[in-house]
Specification:
Structural class: alpha/beta
Number of domains: 2
Largest sheet: 5 strands, parallel
Strand order of the largest sheet: 4-7-10-1-11
Shape: elongated
Radius of gyration: 32 Å
Length: 512
């Protein structure tokens, strides 16, 4: 029987196929395979990666100087560790990236449910196999992807799910005693033997189930149903949790926290540029059909929305604002621009600020509002957040408002313009040219005026939205830009003369 990968699709003819061939190979020598446990393997491969110049975990953005060094220290220390952070902070992505620190192929005894080490089997079936015919024992191979087992913790998870249970059907069919190892139905944890076992949202796991992890973390073994079945597993345990869960849904029991080697805090992107890089990496932007060109200022506004929301007092800080918000918003913004391009017969898809307002359905569900926000209404809160994000981005390109007086004056003299998000670029460009001085300001956005009309319209609309965000011009709900409301001048308080001041103080004097 030839060695195969876990899926059994392709024979690995260049690797040893039997235990006898495995013993003769240098790559899988007994000394190397027997003594190289998972945490040692991850440590060795990480040390090799540290000697190079490439990233430790490709695709993880914004953690190079904060989270990644702590993960490196935990792996070098051979710790089980937990990633603690709010939603949308790439915790699951980091855990899955740990498979890049595993060897390309690891041999195990073919047919073993817990992927036994060929030189040191722990299940009864494999021990008897090697005792009867060791040299001809068939060998199969695990790839890194097959050595990662992930479980989302839910309150209904049982010990049988994680550890295993005794199967009476196996006992009846095989004629075994109920306490025999042959009757064991292995849970997820034993099936992750010689790999990485990840539990997401650990506090959701019932306390009595968390107790079941004590042995594997401290003594390195599990026991099943009270029978003396000892399985010294070789597993690297990693967890993730949200701080909100400690009070909202559950908690990590203290003895389990004590057994976790390292607690590593994750965080949201520190800068807008980091957020833009994450969104560009994660959002579905490479689409078939029309060519896509996203203006830099549009990307910055979308990312600023998350930053503004995280600071807004109407948003629940304990819940956080997931990085999925700008990712989903970007996809929706592109779709709205795509819809406009198709209907208008345009060849180039260029998002505008109006498309960001059209993408509000991708944002509302990702914000947990405080009481004040609930009173205001989710739609109104999101509109105000978008407006604040536009204002911040506008200030990066246009320092001060003095150079926009000519544009503002055009509206003050009675000018109006409606910018519908469904209107084509050519239609809008004809209207925008009538606003004196507007297109001259596009140079601050890196536009020369020779770009496609779709880009010019997007830049001009951004300027108008910026002026509206700073209350220099007005805008209706139908996105008709008008003159801004003049702020009423406050009357200066009248200064009292000496006689009035004396009388005022006399009246305030307390009675005896």
């Amino acid at each position: 029987m030839g060695g195969r990968d876990l899926g059994g699709d392709q024979p690995l003819s260049n690797l040893p196929q039997t235990l006898a061939e495995l013993r003769r190979s240098q790559q899988f020598s007994e000394e190397r395979v027997r003594n190289r446990r998972v945490k040692d393997e991850m440590r060795d491969n990480l040390m090799e990666r540290l000697r190079g110049s490439g990233p430790i975990f490709p695709g993880i953005v914004g953690y190079d100087d904060t989270v990644v060094p702590q993960i490196v220290n935990a792996i070098l220390s051979r710790h089980n560790f937990i990633l603690l952070g709010l939603r949308g902070q790439a915790k699951s992505r980091i855990l899955r990236a740990l498979t890049t620190l595993l060897d390309p192929h690891v041999p195990y005894l073919l047919g073993c449910e817990i992927h036994d080490n060929p030189y040191d089997p722990i299940c009864r079936r494999c021990r008897e196999l090697l005792a009867n015919n060791p040299e001809d024992a068939p060998i199969a191979y695990l790839t890194p992807e097959h050595r990662y087992v992930e479980k989302l913790a839910t309150p209904d998870v049982t010990i049988a799910d994680l550890i295993g249970d005794l199967d009476p059907i196996k006992a009846a069919k095989g004629g075994h005693a109920l306490g025999s190892e042959y009757t064991v139905h292995y849970g997820l944890l034993p099936r992750a033997n010689r790999g990485i076992f990840a539990i997401n949202e650990l506090p959701d796991l019932a306390g009595k189930i968390q107790v079941g992890l004590f042995n594997i973390m401290q003594e390195g073994d599990v026991q099943i149903k009270g029978y003396p079945v000892r399985l010294p597993l070789d597993v690297a345990l990693v967890f993730s949790a949200n701080p909100e869960d400690y009070t909202a849904r559950g908690k990590i029991i203290t003895p389990l926290k004590d057994r976790i080697g390292s607690e590593i805090r994750t965080h949201y992107p520190a800068t807008v540029d980091e957020g833009i890089a994450i969104t560009a990496q994660e959002a579905w932007m490479e689409r078939s059909g029309h060519p896509l060109q996203i203006p830099e200022f549009v990307s910055q506004v979308i990312e600023q929305i998350a930053f503004v929301a995280r600071e807004d007092k109407r948003i629940d800080k304990r819940s956080g604002v997931s990085q999925r918000l700008p990712i989903s918003a970007m996809e929706n913004v592109i779709s709205n621009a795509e819809r406009r391009a198709i209907r208008s017969g345009e060849k180039l898809v260029v998002p505008r600020v109006g498309d960001i307002y059209a993408a509000m359905p991708a944002m509302i569900g990702k914000l947990e509002l405080e009481y004040e926000g609930e009173l205001k209404g989710a739609d109104n809160v999101v509109r105000e957040i978008i407006r604040a994000a536009v204002a911040r981005t506008y200030d990066k390109y246009f320092h001060g408002n003095s150079n926009m007086n000519q544009v503002v004056q055009w509206f003050d003299l009675g000018g109006e313009i409606q910018l519908r998000d469904a209107a084509g670029a050519q239609e809008m460009l004809g209207k925008l040219r009538g606003i004196q001085g507007l297109l001259d300001k596009l140079s601050a956005l890196g536009l020369s005026g020779k770009e496609p009309s779709e880009m010019i319209v997007s830049g001009a609309e951004f300027i108008l939205e910026g002026l509206y965000a700073h209350k220099r011009i007005g805008r209706t709900e139908e996105r008709t830009f008008t003159a801004g409301e003049k702020q009423p001048q406050r009357e200066k308080p009248r200064v009292r003369d000496e006689d009035e001041e004396r009388e005022f103080r006399r009246q305030r004097r307390p009675f005896n």
